[in-house]
């Protein structure tokens, strides 16, 4: 759920698809090739029985938790976090550093982001059902535990922003027609009186970001693609929509952040003046733009401002790692905060009095936990998430390398190698998006593969990845789609030059668009691969664009191409993996969620059917109570165990 204090270029980052968690006893109702687990919610086809030893082997790695910062209490003395003690993540309260995590919500579905009412602990949280992403909004009193739904129970809702008085919210919803990403305004105490503030004029994503200090205008983002993002101002009294940043050409990404508290202008990130997204400020009286980070050639990806507008902070994404800066919104002076943990930072939020800055910090050796930074830059850790009894000091940190692709492009990749002699089998992990980026987050999955399978893990940021400038992110668009697949071919070439890596034992794994990359790599490089794992992947771009939920169809056409255009349709069919099953000669494991609104289950079904018809080796797992990736621990348990078994059988054997 979007909060104006923490918005920015991360607004549209997609759900992580590396699925991990602990083991339960696997009891199944067996048929010849299909069985179900987890009360019938997990369907396994042609997957062998998983030996009990694998559950025992993975148990510690799968008993890892994390804690993400959500908000301060109204007095600033405690914090709200999300963490998992049962099957899914819920909201907890922590009243002191290292203190007890008091669970506040107890739902069967994971609770999304929260937005706290100003000067109150009352909050709004989002929650969907079975991973369908039709998020509903709930008003929660954390002191009594009372809650009730304030959305309509049918539409998709999010991006909640309270006004400064705390009597209204602006939010995004598809309730008008089930398709359009409109902006609505509501007093949460009278949700039946919610009013449509902006009927989205097209299929792009529209959402509120901040209320003007006068309470009569909204700062609005319009997202068409990662390289075409516009900023508007919506006059709530007149209904007038004014374009502030961007043009009809659509060649820039402009993300609104916040109005300055004196109402004289607004902060935003933009790549209008650079290949990277820079922090900027526009004075609305003079129309002058001041670029704050003009000397920093990396993306600004987080921003937060204190309630009184006197303090701010931002982070930059430098080679996948976060660097934190303090920033004065009035003088524009900024300074880097030294001696921070080396990792990825998110969740920037100032306490109500502005004296503390909350951070969620993730490092290669520690899962996400919450820290508070005081005005003297003293960093205090507030949560200590369990890591299953593992000694994380033994965990491997990645090395950043670059390899040359077919056209001379240098492609970055993070390489993890086991702490023993090679040559090692290799697992190539390909991120989704495609406008996403692999960053060296803590991953018990990666460490499990390193320690238990003895495999090296390589996570490339192929062309089309975010984080390396707008030119790089556009290199795979439209008819250039398979150039990113060629980057995987170049990576296979690079692996063959490394004496401690085994080019004869390589697997590929990826989710969403990364799943497409897995399938496409299997089409082009089957003779160089031993195993492939496709998680909620696109198997045919035309059927994907036809069947993905209508509220996001135009957003995906902007990236992949418009299948209604005859030439583009012909191209999309030509590069779709399910049209080239005859070239796939590598064992395949396909993982899917039945309720996936992004990559529908039909994408998995058609590639599995085609592989089976062609007599290929294919395992298939479908969770009937999941969507775009697995959020429920019991399903992640089985997925993780099956993946290890799959790699044991098809990747590890030599010869």
From TrEMBL:
Source species taxonomy: Bacteria, Pseudomonadati, Pseudomonadota, Gammaproteobacteria, Alteromonadales
Gene3D superfamilies per UniProt: alpha/beta hydrolase, TolB, C-terminal domain
GO molecular function per UniProt: serine-type endopeptidase activity
Signal peptide start-end: 1-28
This protein's UniProt keywords: Hydrolase, Signal
GO BP terms, alphabetized: proteolysis
Start and end residues of each Peptidase S9 prolyl oligopeptidase catalytic domain: 441-651
Residue ranges occupied by any Dipeptidylpeptidase IV N-terminal domain in the UniProt entry: 188-367
Name recorded for this polypeptide: S9 family peptidase
Taxonomic source organism: Pseudidiomarina aquimaris
């Amino acid at each position: 759920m979007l909060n104006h204090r923490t918005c920015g270029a991360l607004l549209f980052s997609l759900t992580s698809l590396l699925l991990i968690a602990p083991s339960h006893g696997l009891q199944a109702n067996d048929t010849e090739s299909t069985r179900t687990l987890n009360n019938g919610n997990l369907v396994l086809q042609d997957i062998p029985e998983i030996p009990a030893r694998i559950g025992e082997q993975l148990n510690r790695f799968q008993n890892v938790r994390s804690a993400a910062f959500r908000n301060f209490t109204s007095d600033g003395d405690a914090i709200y976090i999300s963490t998992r003690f049962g099957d899914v993540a819920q909201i907890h309260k922590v009243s002191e550093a290292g203190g007890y995590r008091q669970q506040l919500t107890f739902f069967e579905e994971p609770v999304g982001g929260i937005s706290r009412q100003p000067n109150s602990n009352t909050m709004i949280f989002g929650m969907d059902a079975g991973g369908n992403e039709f998020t509903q909004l709930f008003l929660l009193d954390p002191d009594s535990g009372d809650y009730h739904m304030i959305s309509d129970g049918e539409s998709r809702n999010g991006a909640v922003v309270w006004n400064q008085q705390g009597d209204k919210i602006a939010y995004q919803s598809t309730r008008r027609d089930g398709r359009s990403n409109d902006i609505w305004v509501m007093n949460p105490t009278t949700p039946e009186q919610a009013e449509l503030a902006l009927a989205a004029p097209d299929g792009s994503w529209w959402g509120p970001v901040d209320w003007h200090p006068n309470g009569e205008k909204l700062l609005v983002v319009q997202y068409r693609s990662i390289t075409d993002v516009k900023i508007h101002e919506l006059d709530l009294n007149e209904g007038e929509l004014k374009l502030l940043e961007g043009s009809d050409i659509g060649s820039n990404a402009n993300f609104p952040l916040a109005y300055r508290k004196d109402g004289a202008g607004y902060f935003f990130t933009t790549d209008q003046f650079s290949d990277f997204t820079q922090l900027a400020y526009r004075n609305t009286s003079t129309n002058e733009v001041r670029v704050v980070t003009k000397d920093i050639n990396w993306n600004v990806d987080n921003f937060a401002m204190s309630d009184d507008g006197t303090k701010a902070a931002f982070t930059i994404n430098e080679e996948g790692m976060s660097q934190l800066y303090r920033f004065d919104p009035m003088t524009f002076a900024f300074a880097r905060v030294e001696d921070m943990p080396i990792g990825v930072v998110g969740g920037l939020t100032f306490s109500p009095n502005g004296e503390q800055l909350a951070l969620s910090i993730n490092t290669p050796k520690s899962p996400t936990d919450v820290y508070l930074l005081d005005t003297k830059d003293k960093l205090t850790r507030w949560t200590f998430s369990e890591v299953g009894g593992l000694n994380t000091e033994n965990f491997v940190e990645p090395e950043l390398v670059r390899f040359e692709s077919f056209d001379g492009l240098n492609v970055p990749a993070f390489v993890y190698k086991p702490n023993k002699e090679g040559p090692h089998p290799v697992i190539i992990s390909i991120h989704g998006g495609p406008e996403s980026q692999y960053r060296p987050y803590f991953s018990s999955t990666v460490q499990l593969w390193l320690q238990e399978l003895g495999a090296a893990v390589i996570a490339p940021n192929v062309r089309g990845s975010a984080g390396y400038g707008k030119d790089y992110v556009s290199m795979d668009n439209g008819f250039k789609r398979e150039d990113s697949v060629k980057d995987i071919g170049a990576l296979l070439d690079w692996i063959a030059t490394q004496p401690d890596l085994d080019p004869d034992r390589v697997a590929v794994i990826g989710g969403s668009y990364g799943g497409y990359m897995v399938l496409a790599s299997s089409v082009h490089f089957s003779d160089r691969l031993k195993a492939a794992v496709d998680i909620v992947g696109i198997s045919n771009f035309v059927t994907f664009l036809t069947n993905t939920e209508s509220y996001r169809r135009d957003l995906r056409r902007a990236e992949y191409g418009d299948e209604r255009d005859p030439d583009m349709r012909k191209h999309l069919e030509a590069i779709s993996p399910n049209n080239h099953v005859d070239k796939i000669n590598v064992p395949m494991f396909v993982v899917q969620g039945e309720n996936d609104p992004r990559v529908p289950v039909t994408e998995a079904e058609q590639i599995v059917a085609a592989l089976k018809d062609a007599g290929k080796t294919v395992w298939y797992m479908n969770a009937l109570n999941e969507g775009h990736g697995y959020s429920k621990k019991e399903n992640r348990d089985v997925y993780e165990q099956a993946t290890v078994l799959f790699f044991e059988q098809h990747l590890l054997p030599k010869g």
